Amino acid sequence: MLDLHRLVILRAVIAAGSVHGAASSLHLAPATVSQHLRVLARETGLVLFEKNGRGIDATPAALHLAEESAHALADMERLERTVMDLRQGRAERITFACFASVAQAWMPHVVTVLRSVAPAAVVEISITELHPAGGRRQADIDIRNEALDADPLHLHGHHRHVLTDEELWLVLPAEHPLAAHDVVDMLELRDQPWIDHDINDGPTGRIIARACLTAGFTPRYVARLDDHHAAVSLAAAGLGITVLPLIALTGLPDNLTIRPLANPSVGRRIVAFTKSHPDRARLIHAALTALRDVAGTSRWQR
Fold it and tell me: Which of 21, 76, 171, 190 can pair with 217 through a Cys bridge, CB separation 3.0 to 4.6 Å?
């Protein structure tokens, strides 16, 4: 069995680009790092590094091994946290996977409810934009979104729970000419500079792109990001317009305003998927109830 500590060292050397850099970050002597690398090479039968002048370069085998070890190391870290929680009497745990706007707008209420139901429970939240594979463990509650007119999404072995349907709104500077309109026709955005907040073309990004295509144009992007907060900041700086779901519209800067869209209107559905888990049934039920409550009361607030 491979020594996970040596895999940590391998990843550190690759990240630092040198043995000395890795040794410094790991608080080890360079000789100790080198020794672990030699043992790992012998255990695996792989050439992990090649000399390059005074430095070393990771081989393709080393890079592949480092990449594949990420999940095992994350699982071990999770197991160590579980042991620590058990020592401290925190045996209950519930895990979520959700997108960033849900984590910001809804999860404080959900965690508050869970704390009242089970004060010793640990809540884990993985942001799906950052962990497309689902984070460090399979979530008890997986929150996703889908187009309103799409076939309902189903996950094998999961129960589907619709939480809410919500509109996507145009976000633009308050002084923008289109801000004078009560409703903005999508076609009027054809020549506008766009700021994309879903550079990875997730479900929300695809919904927006399809609405633009239906209106007969492709957005002219001036910036593409993977964070809606940053997109709002760029819009506030007057660099372009963006389209955001209702849940992400809290705390807008004073110089921004929002308008509904038409021809077509743009919207999405937020759905939670749960797995049957006898040991966590109480927590899952409480969390799902809290999600439904907060989803039902979500509204735009500056």
Answer: 190
